[in-house]
Amino acid sequence: MSIAVINLAEKFGKIKELHSYKLVARMNDYHFKLVKMKREFIWHSHPETDEVFMIIDGNMQIALREETLYLKRGEMVVIPKGIEHKPSSSEECKILLIEPVGTINTGSAGGDLTDTEIEWI
Amino acid sequence: MSIAVINLAEKFGKIKELHSYKLVARMNDYHFKLVKMKREFIWHSHPETDEVFMIIDGNMQIALREETLYLKRGEMVVIPKGIEHKPSSSEECKILLIEPVGTINTGSAGGDLTDTEIEWI
Predict the structure, then answer these.
(1) How far B31 CA sits from the closest chain A CA (Å)?
(2) Quick one: closest CA in B to A48, which residue?
(3) Chain A residues within 8 A of B84 when measuring between CB atoms
(4) What CATH number matches the domain at B17-107, 3.90.1150.10, 2.60.120.10, 3.30.465.10, 3.10.20.310?
(5) Which residues pair with A55 in a beta bridge?
(6) Which DSSP helix (H) or strand (E) runs through B33?
(7) Neighbours of B95 (CB within 10 A)
């Protein structure tokens, strides 16, 4: 059995497209996903789970209904389950997401931005 | 309700002692713990859970029975449940651990290095 050391910068180097979620690790029933984001996402929530955003490089913001969170490299946040949020980034931001296997990026909102084909890199 | 942005470097700045685990976040039933390590830890395993090591600064190694993993800043690894491992670092290494609430640092091995009083910072 071989256990892989995961270099996050190297993994991001393999991701050519924006907004394409890639799996890099699994811990029990949780996935670690990378995404390069440069867009305004949609309002959505995950009624069944908390969700972690960790900023590997760049800056992003996460609008909540009553405040806006500003995140930069080396920072993370836990969005509690059921809380509506709208991530956005005006420049490319490299994000590590941690959430249960099967969590959908658009949560219960659905729509065109839903990404259901997530590959391992 | 206020949601905290967690700056990992700032949190590490508040940790004065080596080998004192501190909680910085909870996602569902998982804890995010910081520790500054400079020692050779003991062989142990967690029969009930995988465990994530993410290196925020410095270098460390994790001996397994058949290989040794070398990790540096920006790298992470998932140690599968039940796999014996022995973390060590000759210089101070800043580590983010992700594991289920209640996971004990020494796993099923126990002993003097067991840390059961983990505070939030």
Answers:
(1) 11
(2) B28
(3) none
(4) 2.60.120.10
(5) A95
(6) strand B30-37
(7) 23
